Amino acid sequence: MDKKEYIIRQLGRTKNKRYESYVVTRIVHLLNDFSIKFVTQQYVSRPEGRALTDLFFPQFGIHIEVDEGQHFTCAAIKEDKVREADIVNATGHEIIRVDVTKSFEKINSKIDEIVEKLKVLRCNEQFSAWDIDSEFDPQTYIQRGYIDIVDHVAFKTIKDACNCFGHNYSGYQRAGATHPNPHIMLWFPKLFPNGEWDNQISNDEKTIIERNMNDIKAREHIFSHLNDKEKHKHQRIVFAKVRGNLGDTLYRFRGLYSLDVQKSNENTGLVWKRTKTKVNTYPQPKN
Amino acid sequence: MDKKEYIIRQLGRTKNKRYESYVVTRIVHLLNDFSIKFVTQQYVSRPEGRALTDLFFPQFGIHIEVDEGQHFTCAAIKEDKVREADIVNATGHEIIRVDVTKSFEKINSKIDEIVEKLKVLRCNEQFSAWDIDSEFDPQTYIQRGYIDIVDHVAFKTIKDACNCFGHNYSGYQRAGATHPNPHIMLWFPKLFPNGEWDNQISNDEKTIIERNMNDIKAREHIFSHLNDKEKHKHQRIVFAKVRGNLGDTLYRFRGLYSLDVQKSNENTGLVWKRTKTKVNTYPQPKN
Prior knowledge:
The structure is a homodimer. By secondary structure, chain A is of the alpha+beta class. Chain A folds into two domains: 3-122, Endonuclease, Chain A (3-Layer(aba) Sandwich); 134-280, no CATH class. Helix content of chain A is 29%, strand content 25%. The first copy, chain A, is built from seven helices and 14 strands. Chain A has helices at 3-12, 20-31, 74-91, 104-122, 138-144, 158-162, 215-226, and strands spanning 39-44, 51-57, 62-67, 94-99, 146-148, 154-155, 176-178, 184-187, 200-201, 207-210, 235-243, 249-259, 270-276, 278-280. In chain A, strands 6, 7, 8, 9, 10, 11, 12 and 13 form an eight-stranded mixed beta sheet that branches. A four-stranded mixed beta sheet of chain A has the order 1-2-3-4, sandwiched between helices. In chain A, helix 2 (20-31) crosses helix 4 (104-122). The model of chain A has no long low-confidence stretch (mean pLDDT 88). The A-B interface holds A 2-4, 7-8, 11-12, 15, 18-19, 21-22, 25-26, 29-30, 32, 34, 103-104, 107 and B 2-4, 7-8, 11-12, 15, 18-19, 21-22, 25-26, 29-30, 32, 34, 103-104, 107.
């Protein structure tokens, strides 16, 4: 998918609310700078379930929310505030609301203000232009030296994720792979019940529970980890298999998780706690 | 419906083609001038059936067509050419095509070119700013002194149309009304078979056929017109009842039609031929 395709498809998705399309397309077109990435209907994790925002600029950590009438009952305002505080706390992101019950002039001037703010942020020296090819390319992260959750890193294939950690695979399909540090594994799970595994991730993404659906296999799997004296199996870098918001499959970086030996048991399954949101990358060994 | 509502609803309708929303919203937002009216998915009459264009600027008579891949087979190109020539011939309008199979940069620079062209046209001294309230107000046309088909005039009610011709109705529901000239009638027909009347308008809008569904009534109605020696019933100013492209009922000005006595008969019905596309308006008589 090239940038043209991406932009067309992202803008084509904004059909939920009556004013959403107007606000989202107006911001994107007036900004008129496709070195700035945007995502429509972005999922954001928060302690109480996930929330969806109308437009997200990942380079700036800014979300735009189109507030239609339904947001202005007292209960809704309170709920919005909680939701907003959750997102801000969980991510450090900023949320800007556009109240579309106001006059057309006020809506447009609010949009102008947002566009101006984004243009100023874009002038920051640290700004790194959106490159749709390089963002899925392992070389980008190998050269950067790390993968950080704030950058919303995802790969199109398992092999691309593996190749950020010293591998040189042209194809790889298994859900686990080695890491230069023998105490760490790369893991590519489906974090939902999927037939063989009953996996779950908490809403704040800090805890993953892993358990085989089959009780005998579950028991075996759990004890092989808990009894691993050398703790080779006690840390995992997680790239969760997800559906991207354009319907494509992605392996999204979630962080480094460590086994919580105390909480893990035969009934619950293995309990993994996130211990790092940024991990080092490794070049492929020279021939 | 105010301008805000109109713009939101018009932009919300562009969901047919994949690139249509991108092109339409980009032109409207970059133009960024709501004194310029636009209509999405505008019907245009042509000799061989009606055609739909993606975006229309009535003040300039300019249509924008988003050309996706399907337009580039030889047969489709030929068909498009015929369709385009038809529209241009029937209306004098210009059609500008945006080829969205081209690169993103080329699409955007084509859009810039269109926006530039519209801005230049807007600087014309003759330009009259879009006023959504006044465009449905009889006073606008009374002051102007005429109603012209090139201005795409439509009213929300029959009384508003009547009041352009000397009436001062606060409500009026009948399909016919008088005109200061006793040889002319105002007519508000449904130009499709509608239970009582089997009416039709030709694709080029130049001919209307009117016939009652009931043969006895049809005969009586036809002969009362054909035998009207003083020809009081031989000319009609037509405002056809139509559904506007936002689903609202409108009475759209079609012109002055004159009875074609030769072609009218008991079997065919009354045949009306358009003889004028511009008619004078009349102020309400002073008390």
